[in-house]
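Worked Example 4.2. Consider the chain below.
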Amino acid sequence: MSEDGTIDERFRGRISRPGDARYEEDRIVWNGMRDAHPDIIARCSGVGDVKEAVEFAREADIPVAVRGGGHNVAGTAVRDGGLVIDLSEMRSVTVDPEHRRVRAQGGATWADVDWETQAFRLVAPGGVVSETGIAGLTLGGGYGWTRRKLGLTCDSLVSADVITGEGEFVHASEDEHEDLLWALRGGGGGVGVVTSFEYECLRLGPEVFFLGALYPLDDGEAVLSAWREFMTDAPDEITVDALIWSVPPDPMFPEELHGTPFIGVVGMYAGPPERGPEAMQPLREIGTPLLDLSGPMPYLQVQSMLDAAFPDGDRYYWKSHYFAAFDDDETETILDFARRRPSPRTLVPIRSLGGEIARVGSDETAFGDRSAAALLSIDGTWEDPADDAENVAWVREFWDATKEYSTGATYVNFSMLERDEASRTSFTANEERLAAVKERYDPDGVFAPVETVTVTE
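Applying the procedure from the previous section yields the following C-alpha cells:
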C-alpha cells in the first residue's frame, strides 16, 4: 500500500474502480442475478499482489470478497462496497506426472486443469462444467464424474498456499498447518486467499465410457426405481446421476426432440473404457429411450459437454437437499415438481453418492456428514429478469416440499440460503471446529461472509 493510503503504487496487477473503462466488465460474475458494485477490484498478477490487497484491506478496515472463477451460484465472489481480490489472471497449472500430482493457481478453471493433466492421461477430480473455478468447487466440497472412485474434489487436495487474514503466507499440508488443510477440504472458504491448490490425480483417459440414456419423462417412476436399484450395488468406477431436463436446442440433439422433457441417466465409468458398456448396460434398457448418447468419449469432451447449458450472465437460483435414502415418496414429489418447471432450462439432477465419498470420516475433513445416499439439486435456470419471481418461487416451493425427506443438510455450493444458515446446514457437527480454525487464521474477520444473491418475495 502506498504512503497516501491507496493500493495503486505497489500493485502490479490492474485496479478497477467505478467509472473506469473496464469496471462494468470486471464486476460481472457468472450468475446474472448478482449485481454488486465493489469500491475496488484488485485483479492480482501473483502472490505479491494478493498480499498487498489483504494488507490494504486490513489497514483500511474494508470488507473483502475473493474471486476465483466467479462461478459460485450465490454470487459471493463480489460484494457491494469494499474490495474484491480477483485471482482470475492467476491460472497457471503445473503437472508432476511421476507422482501424479497437479498444482494450479487459485484463478484456474477446471478446463485449465483438465487440459494439462490429460496431456499425461491424468485426472484431478473436478466438477462437471469446465468453466467452473477450481477454488470454489474445492472449498465447497466438489462433485464430479469420478466422485465415487476418488471421493470429493476436496478429498484429493494434498496441499495449498494461503494468504491468511493477517497477510501471512502459509503452506498447508498434512505436515504443516494441518488444521488449515482440514478446513480447506470442503469448509466453504473464509480462512484466507488460496493462491494455489495441489491435488492427487487418477490415471484415466484420454477416452472414457460415458452413459447418456434419455427417456420420456412419463417413464420417470420406472427410471428412478431402476437407477436407485442399480446404484445400490454399483462398483466405485460407476458414477451415474438421474437428470430431469428438456432437450436443449443444440446440434448434438435431433431437432425434432428439442424442447422435449426427459428423464435421463447420465454418468461415467472411471476405469478402462472397454469395460464401461457391459457394466452400465442395464441403465440403457430401462425402457425405450428417446435418445441414447452412450459410448466412448474423450474425457475433455465429457468435462465440457454441459458448458453451453450454463452460460455467463443467465439467471440462476439453486437449492439442494441430501437424502439418507431415496424412496417412492421422494420420487413422486420430485416428478410432480419437475413436470411443472417454469423454465425448460431448469435442471433437476439427483446425484448418486456413496463409494469413496462415504469412506471418509465426517470429521476427517471440514465437509461434514457423508452418509447420504443422494443429493437433490434444484437448478433454477432462465434468461429473462421478468421471470425471476416465478422461477424463484418454484425453486423455494420445491425445496420446502422435499425438506421432510432431507437429512437436514444442504450442499454449500448449491445453496441460496443466508450465510449463517448455509454454514449450519452444510458443515453440521464440524461448524464449531471450523469457526475455531477461521479465528486462528483470520482473527480480525477480514474474510467475513459475503451476502448471497437475494430475491424479494
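The chain is about 25% helix and 25% strand. The two ends are 43 Å apart (CA to CA). Compare this with Example 4.1 before moving on.
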